[in-house]
Amino acid sequence: MFARQILVVEDEKILASNIRKSLQKLGYSVSEITDSGEEVIKKVAETHPNLVLINIGLAGEIDGVDVADIIQNQFHVPVVYLTDSSEYKTLHKNQLSESFSYITKPFLESDLHFAIEMALYKHQSEKILYEEKQRLTAIINSMGCAVIVTYANGCIQMMNPIAELITGWKQSEAFGKDLIEVVNLVDKEIGEKIENLATNVIKADEVFNLPENCTLITKDGKEIAIGDNIAPIRDDNGNITGTVLVFQDITKRKETEAQLIRNAFYDGLTALPNRVLFLDRLRQTIERSKRRSDYYFAVLFLDLDGFKEINDRFGHGIGDDFLVAIARRLESCLRSGDTVARFGGDEFTVLLEDIKDINDATNVAKRIQDSLRLPINLNGYQLSTTASIGITWNFSNYEEPATLLRDADIAMYRAKRQGKATYAIFS
Questions:
Q1: For residue 78, cis peptide bond before it (omega within 30 degrees of 0)
Q2: Kindly report the CA angle at 57 between 56 and 61, in degrees rounded to 5?
Q3: Nearest C-alpha neighbor of 217 from the set 182, 267, 190, 170
Q4: To 10 degrees, what angle do helices 275-291 and 401-417 make?
Q5: Phi and psi (nearest 5°) for 268?
Q6: Among residues 66, 136, 254, 424, which is most buried (max CB within 10 A)?
Q7: Do residues 317 and 325 touch, judged by C-beta distance below 8 A?
């Protein structure tokens, strides 16, 4: 095992010589003895000693305290001050406030040994702690999600670059601020602001998942959908020392989910509800009518007259544009609470809720026919159509949507047999 090197900085020659002898006797290697502040900095750079023993009252342009600061801050070498009682009284509240950072002259050899060993141990412990902190910081900064660490009082201790990017706050700005000030969260489902998660997690002593519709309001007011959780941080004894909030921007995921929902429940061409969504709404309406004896509703089943001829003559591109225009016409004929859906091809269905009687349904059918007769200008062509409409309503206390739609379909074919461009009521 190599003897640890100590650089002695002492301008009293006799004392410096005695210190060298004592150190060598204790098993240390004395690399240099110097009495100049400027010289000691050069020696530290050249020899990289394990410790510097320096007279705090060193004379010269750079005093002992300034030299020690440079050695510790730039070269990361531990320093033990040599001081007499008068210097100690003057400097105690400032430079000598740290434990094991100085030894007062005159001193025993055992005191010198103890001071050096404690300074070396403290430096090594701090080095290990610093390296561990740097390693953990590197891991957190390398994570693909945002990380914010708070103290036990809910104030921010650190945040990684992704957290800075998402929130719009720099770590230097956010440090020491209450988490709720930097991470401004709103539960969009209920429209309420989310209180300080760190405080709640510490009180509950458990991991909290962010609400499903959690939205972050960034520093510049932008809204970002986020998700993940916040958990308490515990020391080796199980005591909570803070919290760690982990989250990520889930805007794209939300958009994908919304698109999947649209694909599942809406027609890709006309953007109207599709068969699945229409049947679901019809089922809910049937259940509602069972609870209210005075609740009436009707279903209209529409089949466009002559659409095949339009498709064959002008092509599927014009045909598709025509169906989109028809969808908008149908929407304009209905109340906001009613539903029009595309069942496929040129078939559409309409759900009229909370009507007074069958006359409300027939009036809508007439309004639809009048609207469809108005020409639609597509690519220079004036196109119009009519529809065969079958109507049924809940006078028969229907139990299943499929049965009600079957009867509306039967009525629609009856209307076609009657010469198209009309409606028929199932009975």
A1: no
A2: 105
A3: 182
A4: 110
A5: -65, -25
A6: 424
A7: no
The pLDDT tens digits for 345-361 are 999 999 999 999 999 99
C-alpha 425/C-alpha 228 separation (Å) is 54
pLDDT tens sequence across 193-222: 888 888 889 888 899 999 888 999 999 999
- Tokens 């070396």 correspond to 120
77 contacts 71 by C-beta, under 8 angstroms: yes
Q: To which residue do tokens 């404690």 refer?
A: 118
Residue 272: exposed, middle, or buried by beta-carbon count in 10 A (0-12, 13-18, 19+)? buried
Q: pTM of the prediction?
A: 0.56
340-345: which pairs have CB atoms within 8 A and are 24 or more residues apart? Answer: 340/272, 340/273, 341/267, 341/272, 341/273, 341/274, 341/275, 341/277, 341/278, 342/267, 342/269, 342/270, 342/272, 342/273, 342/274, 343/274, 343/275, 343/278, 343/301, 344/275, 345/307
Helix/strand/coil for 17 = helix
Are 390 and 408 contacting, i.e. CB atoms less than 8 angstroms apart? yes
Least confident span in 90-94, 114-118, 196-200, 335-339: 90-94
Residue 367 CA to residue 373 CA, distance in Å, equals 10
- How far is it, in rounded angstroms, from Cα 286 to Cα 401? 8
What is the DSSP code (8-state) at residue 273?
B
Domains and CATH numbers, the chain: 5-137 (3.40.50.2300), 143-252 (3.30.450.20), 266-425 (3.30.70.270)
Q: How far is Cα 196 from Cα 180, in angstroms, rounded to an integer?
A: 5
Q: Which of 219, 281, 214 is nearest to 250 (CA)?
A: 214
The set of catalytic residues is: 346
